UniProtKB/TrEMBL annotation:
Stretches for region Disordered: 138-167
InterPro entries: Bact_OuterMem_StrucFunc (IPR050330), OMP_bac (IPR006664), OmpA-like (IPR006665), OmpA-like_sf (IPR036737)
Protein name as catalogued: OmpA-like domain-containing protein
Comp. bias intervals (Polar residues): 145-164
Organism of provenance: Flavipsychrobacter stenotrophus
Length: 298
């Protein structure tokens, strides 16, 4: 078993002549005797995926550990379950299962001092080791800040809340037309996509996969901001780019599913293009808080 693991580690860390690789290790910490991910751990993984620290095509190792409390077999099982839960979460949020080359629990981290009855919190962890490939001949992709003006809509496909919202209609729309992306949800002030949105995003992915010539722009809009502020605050990044980051999050989801990034653009418009100019109710705010898909070519 150890020889196999050593062989995998050697393969994992071998550098290719044709590509420069960057190896990063990210630490996720767990509560005592707990294998389940908590909210902080989930948020950290979300940010790693969102910020392209873990991308499809990378080689990923997930290694679980435990502290010295408990028996050897208990700690082995606990560390393995921690690693498995992290792997499952990565796959659930778009990382290819085939990219996770190693998922292992190594049990107790050996320490000389094992007298503390509270154990050692820093050893209750999972390490995600990521080997990313970078091609330096590629030009970096520049992402937008909050935009001020959307592309001109060439023909009318409805307006405001009357826009079409059936994703199956995407391949029937003309260049410049937009469709309202319904049932996509984010926590207040956050760009993290809620799990109940995945049904809609899977339909969007399937439509793009079935129509390989279709190119789209993902456009975010927010509500409830006033004055000269261009966009709402994203509490995850502490940036005034909430509409931009929500649109980008959807783009990253589609790219992680396998859609070519060259077919996708994204933009955020803050509250510069509200459906309801003066929000007087939650219903008004909901109309302004939206994501739209614009046809670039079809």
């Amino acid at each position: 078993m150890y020889r196999i693991l050593l062989s995998l580690l050697f393969t994992f860390f071998t550098l290719s002549v044709s590509a420069q690789r960057m190896i990063d290790t990210f630490h996720l910490y767990f509560d005592l005797n707990v294998a389940a991910l908590n909210k902080n751990t989930e948020k950290k993984i979300d940010l790693l995926i969102y910020n392209d620290k873990i991308i499809n095509g990378s080689t990923v190792m997930v290694v679980g550990y435990a502290d010295f409390l408990g028996s050897e077999q208990y700690n082995k099982n606990l560390s393995m379950q921690r690693a498995k839960n992290v792997k499952d979460y990565l796959i659930k949020y778009g990382i290819n299962a085939a990219d996770v080359k190693v998922c292992v629990g190594k049990g107790e981290v050996k320490r000389r001092d094992t007298t503390d009855k509270e154990g050692n919190p820093v050893d209750r962890k999972v390490d995600i080791v990521v080997n990313n490939k970078f091609n330096f001949s590629e030009q970096p992709r520049h992402y937008p800040t909050t935009a001020s003006k959307p592309p001109k809509e060439t023909t009318t496909a409805g307006s405001g809340s009357n826009k079409p919202s059936d994703i199956k209609e995407l391949n029937t729309l003309k260049e410049g037309q937009t469709i309202l992306l319904k049932n996509v949800y984010f926590p207040a002030g956050s760009h993290m996509i809620k799990p109940e949105s995945f049904n809609t995003l899977e339909k969007l992915y399937a439509t793009l996969k079935d129509n390989p010539r279709l190119k789209i722009s993902i456009e975010g809009h927010v509500c409830c901001i006033h004055g000269d502020v261009p966009d709402a605050l994203d509490i995850d990044t502490n940036e005034l780019l909430l509409s931009v980051n929500r649109a980008k999050a959807i783009l990253r989801y589609l790219v992680n599913k396998g859609i070519d990034e060259e077919r996708l653009q994204f933009a955020g418009f803050g509250k510069q293009h509200p459906i309801v100019a003066y929000e007087r109710s939650e219903e008004d705010a909901e109309k302004n808080r939206r994501v739209e898909i614009r046809i670039l070519s079809n």
